[in-house]
Design brief:
Elements lengths: L20 H20 L2 H15 L18 H5 L4 H18 L10 H10 L5 E7 L6 E7 L1 H17 L16 H5 L7 E6 L9 H9 L7 H11 L12 H8 L1 H13 L3 E5 L2 E6 L6 H13 L10 E3 L6 E2 L2 E2 L8 H17 L1 H14 L1 H5 L7 H16 L4 H12 L9 H11 L1 H6 L4
Antiparallel strand pairs: 1-2, 3-5, 3-6, 4-5, 7-8
Helix pairs in contact: 4-5, 4-6, 5-9, 8-9, 11-12, 13-14, 13-16, 13-17, 16-17, 16-18
């Protein structure tokens, strides 16, 4: 039984949750008759038979076999041509073949349409497990909904297809976009006199199902309404995007395209610059542009797009203080905070003078009290992995030719850490290509 599907899910479909005995028997008889007719028809007449049958039932023609797909970009066209759960399963299985070729440890078991219908329309109450992790603001918690194994696998394959099709991401969006990161989000604001940080309240929860379903029917996805409904049900929970699902970040970027365009226009009218990293909005200007008229226009736009500003997190940073954008200092040019460099230096010194075990013990003691420790339930990674990640991040922000990056890299190598375990340049490449959050998720930072 595919994907450990319960018995009641095999016959269930979104439009026919409990097929009657008589109707099922009629469908079986019809299938036998069609099979017998096809057996006696010559190949050149079979295509005409299917065209006639589909025309009679108001269905679209049967899809042609998928051509060989050699990379994820090739998933875009067949994904847009999906007609139902069965054809979606075929495209997801093509994505699965690409995924398994790149990640042999992943499960190669193919999907079928009934599994997709089951997760989309029938398994509602146990698809996600909910837990909390601390936010950057002390005392606040973030609700995470983690999909179960079967749904997470479907969403990861869907993400490959959605990424291949989504070619119109707004230039202001930098979160969860290939080739963009917290660094590209901060760079446009470097050297600006006034930097304004804003936060959207309940960002994923306020990205509702209806908007997701609608955006999937529009270019560049261009899915049929029934298919958009199927995909939206696979990606949403309780009427909105769950924070914790692999597909949620990309779909928020798709839904927020109009929001980003309107906020870029707002920034242009006030001679400012705008970027967005997930729910973090940043505006910057060389003039005092952020006054009541600006905030009034901003509220009108956010209200129209279905979002609210978290007023408690509004922060206007002036040139005589440290200005940060997504954790990167932007007063002059993109840089890391001084405390970050001091922390790396102290960890290396502790390892060099007190030994690996003592330094690891100190790391574990501090890690339990940190935000990262709370996220990972107090389980600290190895000392060398933490240092390698921090040094790689320093190199990404300051450049691999910076003095501190070179010195710290050489020191780490002299202490016995080499590329047999984890290569610093490899981590740096992951961060540049996929972003910091993706590197953290893959346990490379």
């Amino acid at each position: 039984m595919p994907e450990d599907l319960p018995p009641d899910a095999i016959s269930a479909t979104p439009d026919q949750p409990d097929a009657g005995t008589e109707e099922a028997a009629g469908q079986a008889l019809e299938a036998v008759q069609h099979a017998e007719l096809l057996r006696v028809l010559s190949p050149e007449y079979q295509a005409g038979f299917w065209a006639m049958l589909n025309a009679q039932k108001g269905r679209q023609p049967r899809p042609a076999p998928l051509l060989e797909i050699i990379d994820t970009a090739g998933l875009a066209v067949p994904f847009r041509e999906v007609m139902d759960a069965d054809t979606l399963a075929r495209v997801l299985n093509a994505a699965l073949a690409l995924d398994v070729a790149e990640n042999p440890q992943h499960k190669p078991k193919p999907l079928i349409g009934k599994v997709l219908n089951y997760y989309a329309f029938h398994k509602k109450t146990t698809r996600y497990s909910t837990f909390e992790i601390p936010k950057r603001t002390r005392g606040e918690m973030r609700v995470i909904k983690a999909p179960d194994h079967g749904l997470r696998r479907i969403q990861r394959l869907l993400l490959l297809c959605l990424t291949a099709a989504f070619t119109t991401c707004d230039k202001a969006a930098h979160g969860f976009v290939p080739g963009r990161s917290v660094l590209t989000n901060a760079q446009p604001h470097a050297g600006r006199r006034f930097v304004l940080n804003l936060d959207l309240k309940d960002f994923f929860t306020n990205t509702h199902y209806g908007r997701v379903e609608r955006v999937l029917q529009l270019p560049p996805f261009s899915l049929l309404p029934a298919v958009a409904r199927l995909v939206a049900n696979l990606c949403c929970d309780q009427g909105s995007l769950p924070q914790g699902a692999p597909t949620s970040p990309l779909l928020t970027n798709a839904v927020c395209q109009r929001l980003d365009r309107r906020l870029r226009q707002l920034a242009k009218c006030h001679r400012a610059t705008y970027t967005r990293y997930a729910d973090d909005l940043t505006f910057s200007s060389q003039r005092p542009a952020f006054r009541e008229p600006f905030y009034a226009e901003l509220k009108v736009i956010l209200d129209a797009e279905g979002y609210q500003e978290n007023a408690q997190k509004r922060r206007l940073q002036l040139p005589n203080a440290r200005q940060e954008v997504t954790g990167i200092v932007v007063n002059d040019q993109p840089n890391v905070p001084r405390e970050y460099v001091r922390q790396i230096r102290a960890m290396l010194h502790n390892w060099e003078t007190k030994g690996y075990e003592a330094a690891s013990t100190t790391l574990r003691a501090h890690y339990r009290e940190s935000k990262a420790g709370a996220r990972h339930k107090g389980t600290a990674p190895k000392l060398e992995q933490v240092l390698a990640g921090k040094i790689a991040y320093l190199g990404m922000v300051r450049g691999s030719d910076s003095v501190e990056y070179t010195v710290f890299s050489q020191k780490l190598k002299s202490l016995g850490f080499d590329k047999e375990n984890l290569a610093i340049m490899g981590i740096l490449k992951v961060i540049k290509e996929k972003g910091v959050k993706e590197a953290i998720a893959s346990k490379q930072v």
